[in-house]
Amino acid sequence: MKGDVLIVKDLPSHLQSLDLEAIGSQITDNDISKEAEPSEFIRTALPVLQKNGVVHFLGFGNRLGFDSVPADLQRLRCRCNFHALKFAPEIQKLGSLLVQRLRGVSAMQTEMDTQLFGSNMLDRPFGDKSTDDAGGPSRYLALHLRFEEDMVAYSLCEFGGGDEERRELQAFRETHFPALVARLRNTTVSPEELRSQGRCPLTPEEAGLILAALGYVRGTFIYVAGSQIYGGATRLRPLTRLYPNLVTKEDILSSDELAPLKNFSSRVSALDFIACASSDVFAVTDSGSQLSSLVSGHRVYHGRGRAPTLHPNRKRYAQILSEEAGIEWAGFQKRVRTMVDEYKRVRARPRGRTVYRQPRTPGCMCRADDDGSVDF
């Protein structure tokens, strides 16, 4: 960032003793709206900076909007997100170990590897000189299953568990989502309608059927990202029957290696991010997931067109599944492949969409010509 922003570790000595709150130099989310245009930052923050010489963005999360942003600011934002931001060294080393064990090789090979691990790539994944690259790297698919209990409960959908499932999920909602429960007291929600609208998370079985329809064979090596799957091994069984070579970070790394991450959910998620970003294919089951969105953006930006991401359209898929009684496997395959292919078309970022997920935009990955056209 040094070519764009001067970054210092400490305030100048004449500013260190100031009470920033007392002099009015603190800016919070209440002062600037979400997705604000640059002009709002200039109106709000610049006068404070000019008056006091310092501005403190305290607990600030209201990022700059993605539209109506000059190309130079968009370029800076992309350089920050896709180049400057790095995981902490201990995460880089453990992530390097995880990916090398998944691949079965000791040498990292891609632009993505360089970006994710920097100088903290490990030379030997197993600490064993017998490990080499003679057989070439193993290929793997990363599947982000968003089927944890909180996701399932919040969706208000039903997943075939009958009255016991309804009672269990309702109890979870009352404990963890009281505002949602209060909002629903005078409202009737139809699980069938939610499913038809594509608002229900995909079950492991439904995700497995998509992969099978796309032609992934039984021996495909699959890394499963995410927390504990609702329903545990029983819910996963249909997927493991289709694809027995399913692993998680807990299968690849020892409990001792994972110990420093215990009780730090964001650090655990960082490992999933790394494994998903580095995979040969990344399969998303919930396009609204923050992890899936950020991984997808990194794969577009650093993948050089060789890092495919599978995005099923849940609304379209729900329609296909509702007709499964009258559809043969060949027809199911064709419709699923068409559904996935539609998302894979290269297009510029639509207005209002995040640059972090869709970096194909002027100032980031694209060049806008005078006639308004965009080159990738």
From TrEMBL:
The record's GO molecular-function terms, alphabetically, read: glycosyltransferase activity
Lineage of the native species? Eukaryota, Viridiplantae, Streptophyta, Embryophyta, Tracheophyta
Where located?
Membrane
**Protein name (Swiss-Prot/TrEMBL):** O-fucosyltransferase family protein
Is Glycoprotein given among the entry's keywords?
A: yes
Major location (coarse): membrane
Listed GO biological process terms? fucose metabolic process
Its membrane topology, per UniProt? Single-pass membrane protein
The family line of this record is: Belongs to the glycosyltransferase GT106 family.
UniProt keywords (A-Z) are: Carbohydrate metabolism, Fucose metabolism, Glycoprotein, Glycosyltransferase, Membrane, Transferase, Transmembrane, Transmembrane helix
Keyword Transmembrane in annotation: yes
Supply the InterPro entries for this chain: FucosylTrfase_pln, GDP-Fuc_O-FucTrfase, GT106_glycosyltransferase
Question: Any coiled-coil ranges, and where?
Answer: none
- In this record, what's one Pfam family? O-FucT
